[in-house]
Amino acid sequence: MNFEGLDAGMGEFPPNLHGTLDAGLEPSMDPHLNPTLLQGVELEAEGLTMTVPEPVHMMEGLFSELHSVVSEVGIPVTATHFDNQEEMLWMGNHRGHATSFFGPTMGRHSSFQVHAADDIRHIQSLETGVLFLSKSNLKCFTRGGLVMFDYPMEEGADMHSLLMTGNNTLLMGGLQNYVAEVDLNTVQETQKFTVEIPGVAIMRQSNRFFFCGHTSGKVTLRDLRTFKMEHEFDAFSGSLSDFDVHGNLLAACGFSSRGLNGLSCDRFLMVYDLRMMRAVTPLQVHVDPLFLRFIPTYTSRLVIISQTGQCQFCEPTGLANVADLFHVNTVGQLLMSFDVSSSKQALGFGDSGGCVHLWTDVPEVSFNDYSRETEFALPCLVDTLPQLDWNHDLLPLSLIPLPLTSTEPLLSDWPTALAAPRPRRAPPVDPEILRTMKTVGFIGYAANPRTRIRNQVPYKIKDAELDYDNYKQVPESPIGRDEEPHLCMVLKKYRKVTIKYSKLGLEDFDFKHYNKTLFAGLEPHIPNAYCNCMIQVLYFLEPIRCLVQNHLCQKEFCLACELGFLFHMLDLSRGNPCQASNFLRAFRTIPEASALELESLHPHQLHQETQEQEGPQAYRGASSSSLGSSVESVIGKLFGCEVENSSLCRCAKETVRSSLTLLFTMHYPEQNSQDKVIKEYDFAEILKKSICLEQSTQAWCENCEKYQPTVQTRNIRCLPDVLVINCEVNSAKEAEFWKVQAEYAFNKAMQKEAKETSKLDEAPPPMPSEWCLDGEELCSMEGLAIDTRAEDLRHVWIPLTMKMSISKSQGLEISSWSEGDELSAVEEEEGASLYDLVVTVPHIQDGRTGGNLVAHIKVGETYHQRKEGVTHQQWYLFNDFLIEPIDKTEAAQFDVSWKVPAILYYAKRNYHTKYDLRIKNPIDASVLLTEASLARKQRKSHATFIPLMVSEMPQAGDLVGLDAEFVTLNQEEAELRSDGTKSTIKPSQMSVARITCVRGQGPNEGIPFIDDYISTQEQVVDYLTQYSGIKPGDLDAKISSKHLTTLKSTYLKLRFLIDTGVRFVGHGLQKDFRVINLLVPKDQVVDTVYLFHLPRKRMISLRFLAWYFLDLNIQGETHDSIERLSALQLQKKYWKARGREPGEMEGDHAVKSEEN
């Protein structure tokens, strides 16, 4: 080093920096130990390093050494890196070994071998692990040293640099003529960019460019998307040593060529202004620069490091000051690596002697602004025996452990007469296997769901253990608000499910993780989505599904019509969730929606609406007053039960009224204060008393002309096809009644199982003649019970099947019935019927989420036949978009500490055979005819569309350009994380405001035939005029001059086009159809977003595509949906470029665009 011009005292170091080895340290600990390398460092007896515990006094703002540690003596440290997530400093040495040090005390955290021979050239920390780059290998380890993946390079690769370009992508460069891009999710190379100048030794990134430093001394600026070279700086004539970028400045250091003398370190730093893309005045420094970094704290300071350990701070636009020099005590070793922490408070150096030096400018250093907690290895705890005072008189001799020397049996050894071996119960068969199993003879075949490891079955004491999360939380009491809080654990599949939104909205949300069936779930983020479970219940009642899909009327907000539209989407969906936004919009217009009368709202409302004769396709039914009419609505026939209510006064006057009820509410017996124990009741007994209710109330008596105590009695005249029961468990007293009755039923089942087991023990085991393969029923062979499953009946009180009958002498009779048995011919002649449990709706009480409603539904054969092509019945859990097959006993289990029964459905066996289950589409071509506008001020001269003529009616395969505009009803709810990113909690609620359809062929091609503005009764918070072109007043029927219609009217037009089979062309149609609440088959959608989309690139806007391909300037001041229909022209341009005719089918255009 040349020290001319420097202070002569700079080379003299104080004596306290030159420590000596401790006199007690034996030199034989390591024969290769060089004492001159360990000045100021102590070695523990086990060989671990520890710093000299000297007090450190530092001035804030001036860097000074805090600690120095030795990793491996004599092995050069080739890479250092401050962890970006935790308070750790990583180092890698020349022999491929990595070590991490924790915090400012530099305590060793982990140490492991990364590569057997090659040196570690670059280290990069991730959220889940740490990347290590060697010459021909990229490895990822956990911070504890476990291998996550190993990615080998191509033969001949010589990698030097690594750069993270995203959360899951990185670039790697080296002495070869290419830079490789690797996806960390798949650990595969995604792209390979050729570089014009080989030897990419250093890479940096800003918000504008990638910067590549080459061994030839040049720095190239490359495009962030294509990696093409945009600019080039010829920094040094020899070679580049290091460079860094901050703001609009780029500073570089390197070597200059000196002719025959080779290369020499250049003491001028090259500084470039990235705004003007030219060099500014070079910066002269007083050290030979090898490393440099920007440290932007108060100013944009530069730190320049020489190989001998000299450090200098300077401003990139000013003169270097000699007073800003300090020296790293390397004891004659050379610095090999350098890094700066993200907080800019710490500097890390690695030298050729194996030492790591930590420098800082603050007394309490922190490597990151927000570091997470570091996990440490648990120490090995060895139990030691306590010290015993043998001389103490009161010392108990039992504390002295003695070996067992006697041959006498221990008290814990049970004799054979008192103990019997019991085999372990076989684990239950996976419900997915039972659901898909096909039986041939007595053998069942099913595909392997691969939910378990091959040839291994986990041994669990309790089957429900895996359904609980490993944390404890005490929520509020689920029943009584004034009760003491207690611990209750809600199974994971029953908890309220939420959608996690990203920048792409729902496109990257994995719904298949929650639903592996082909049935469609419902999204929960819409207002009033609490009734999603009841929508599923009505959908899986076959007569209801057919009724509402055949229904159509002129009423704007008709629940039956909207339910029919929704059920049509559920029929078409193949496992993807739907949203009931239009149905819930009509649902909000009903006053009962705010009262949450879930159990009675749907049947009563549908019963009323399906009787209204407002359309030619509407079901014709009698009003509720004319019960004797021969024409009844399907709702009345399905749920309706004619009841006779009699009121008997003291004066012996009896009043009898007849009415139709659609559900029954449970009434539980009153508990006397003297009875401390709740009596045992059968569910059928309580249900009979609730249906044939008898109670005393105050009522008006016309004979007495005043209110008198009256006895009111209710009797039924007929049995409904579907019995709906409201459980009415609203208090802790009723919940306790359910709990006690379930315990009574469980104890009975256990006693019955014990009796059967004792009989089997007495009798010799018979040899089975044939095996019974049945996943649902209990198998028995001549008295040999294979599985009684009494343990599964815990928390079960309700029967799976009931027998009900009405006789003149006895009245209503209800009793529990075995599920597999049928009625005799005599019982059928007497009018008895079997009712099977088909639906249970429990209320999940979860203090963490506020609770939610789910449904257990027994899905019938016809639904499985349509969706999966198999004929069987199966119970499923429906929790919004989570759908999972369950066992039938789970549907009847109610642990009232968190799972409270709400509604039960019992269906008469084979009830659907007497209903017409054919569906005829009620939507015809008349919906496309001209209609009057709701706006009072509309003028025909201002019409923006020409309706279709009869000769222009669309056919299957015709092209129709479509676009829609929306307004915002509710703003999105989001939160900012600590790292500055935004997390969407609830998306904004949009409502369609304008729908435009354009002819795609024919003489009037390009002319709209639908341009409807949608009237809305809900409050609009943002018209989004800049993007939608909708202005305040356009949707108001009193002042609007547009063609204003109802959403239902325009919805019917689009449904007719979809059912006809037309193909919609547009830009971003996925979001349009989602907000309109339409499900369109993929082969009927041609989206220009995907036609012109390259793999792993961003989506291109319609404005750019129209300008680039069509030379059109659209969406200037406002956004007009007719302008956006230039997507038709873009599609023809695409077809022309592909050499195809516009009439050909596009197929899966998204996949084909990726092939380009």
Automatic annotation (TrEMBL):
Free-text domain note: The linker, or PAN3 interaction domain (PID), between the WD40 repeats and the pseudo-UCH domain mediates interaction with PAN3.
Homology family: Belongs to the peptidase C19 family. PAN2 subfamily.
Gene3D superfamilies referenced in this protein's UniProt entry, alphabetically: Cysteine proteinases (3.90.70.10), Ribonuclease H-like superfamily/Ribonuclease H (3.30.420.10), YVTN repeat-like/Quinoprotein amine dehydrogenase (2.130.10.10)
Domain USP intervals: 520-909
PANTHER family: DEADENYLATION COMPLEX CATALYTIC SUBUNIT PAN2, PAN2-PAN3 DEADENYLATION COMPLEX CATALYTIC SUBUNIT PAN2
Cofactor: a divalent metal cation
Organism: Oryzias javanicus (Javanese ricefish)
Keyword Repeat: no
Subunit structure: Forms a heterotrimer with an asymmetric homodimer of the regulatory subunit PAN3 to form the poly(A)-nuclease (PAN) deadenylation complex.
Keywords noted in UniProt: Cytoplasm, Exonuclease, Hydrolase, Metal-binding, mRNA processing, Nuclease, Nucleus
Protein name: PAN2-PAN3 deadenylation complex catalytic subunit PAN2
Primary location: cytoplasm
Catalytic activity: Exonucleolytic cleavage of poly(A) to 5'-AMP
Single annotated GO MF: nucleic acid binding
Region ranges (Disordered): 1-26, 605-625
A GO CC term attached to the entry: nucleus
EC number of the protein: 3.1.13.4
Regulation of its activity: Positively regulated by the regulatory subunit PAN3.
Source taxonomy: Eukaryota, Metazoa, Chordata, Craniata, Vertebrata
Subcellular location: Cytoplasm, P-body; Nucleus
An example Gene Ontology biological process: positive regulation of cytoplasmic mRNA processing body assembly
